[in-house]
Amino acid sequence: MVKQLILTIIGPTASGKTSLTIELAKRTDGEIIGLDSRQIYEGMPIGTAQPTDDEMEGIPHHLFGFRNPAKPISSGEYAKIVKEKVVEIRGFGKTPIICGGAGLYYRALKTGIFEGSVSDLPTRNRLDQAYENDPVALLDLLRSIDPEYAEIVHINNKKRLMRALEIYETTGKTPTEHFKDQKKHPVETMNLFTILLNWDRKIIIQRIEQRTDEMLENGWVEEVQELLIKQSESKKVYPALNSIGYRQIQSYLNNEMTYDEMRDDIVIRTRQFARRQVQWFKKEKIDLIVEM
């Protein structure tokens, strides 16, 4: 078990986590480890708000843009990689600082994740199509399999709903069963000192709108076009292209919505996502809340 405290900065999207963490890294001889479910993918720097070389200011960053977008990653695998990076950074006499907004990945580090938490792409693709066809039927399926866990899964939380069913299909056990097993047989966790950045909702909405416009101005549409070409050439599905913003831009490219409709829908979906992040972090044990 990693006993030494690890400084961890969390918060909703567009809350200024990256800039604060870079300042802390400067003062502590630190290196930054990302905790984001989309910033891990290569070829997606604009739409996932990966820090640029200028923004990094010479501070080493880990787990940004390192994974092929055709390869999904489970929270268990992510936690394992983060732990390895912590050991590596400390081995160089540096201070690891974790930064991100992925609630499930954070929980995997803080309280552990059950053994066997893996991703199965064919199953995920099938569930994705099933959700698009009839999300109500998919939620009803989860209710029949795991009524306890289904109580905390909203029908609009596509990722969580699909992941619950994917876990069941790939392991033969429901999420509830896995969580109960985890309590009986605790797995290795990390000793985090967690700082949560808390903003007034109106300000977060303004920051989301501003950042969305900047992303579009910086070439987000072109980034999606390049990814679609690579996806076609590789003949592999890029699950990451189902993320907020990437879906809307594809609809725009297919002439299914106007530019303004695309932009507004991205903002709305991002606002909803930020609200879910805030609700998730309210359930976590936080060491320090910073009112921004």
TrEMBL record:
Which terms under GO biological process does the entry name? tRNA modification
Question: Could you tell me what reaction this enzyme catalyses?
Answer: adenosine(37) in tRNA + dimethylallyl diphosphate = N(6)-dimethylallyladenosine(37) in tRNA + diphosphate
Q: Might you give the EC number(s) for this enzyme?
A: 2.5.1.75
Instruction: Identify the InterPro entries for this entry.
Output: Dimethylallyltransferase, IPT, P-loop_NTPase
Q: Does the keyword tRNA processing apply?
A: yes
Keyword terms of this UniProt record: ATP-binding, Magnesium, Nucleotide-binding, Transferase, tRNA processing
Names of required cofactors? Mg(2+)
Q: What class of enzyme is it?
A: transferase
Where would one find the signal peptide in this protein?
none
Any GO molecular function: tRNA dimethylallyltransferase activity
NCBIfam families recorded:
miaA (TIGR00174)
Q: Which family does it belong to?
A: Belongs to the IPP transferase family.
Designated name of the protein: tRNA dimethylallyltransferase
